[in-house]
Design brief:
The chain has a five-stranded mixed β-barrel. It has 101 residues and is mainly β. The longest helix has 10 residues. The chain has a single domain, classed as OB fold (Dihydrolipoamide Acetyltransferase, E2P), CATH 2.40.50.
Amino acid sequence: MGEGQQIFVGRLGKNPFLAYAKGGVPVCEMSLALDKQIEGKTIWRRIVTWGRLAEVCSVQLKKGNSVFVQGQIVIRNFFNKEGEKKTVEEVVANKIALSFL
């Protein structure tokens, strides 16, 4: 595992969403409900994949699938349509596998 890489295990909360960034690069977004809970509350992670992995995830994965995700947590800032600064924490995944547990 590379530097800063972490592993997350959980279930997809909705079907993966595939879009294309500038230059036509595929990007897939997913929401992952982690198997761990804190004080009885579900922990959610936003998962992002790029390129060929994004295309495969959009076709092979669906809501409710149990998956292993390996990636790095990234904090990203942007301005919304109203000009407000927003911060998003997401996991940029480089490996995803179905779990049959």
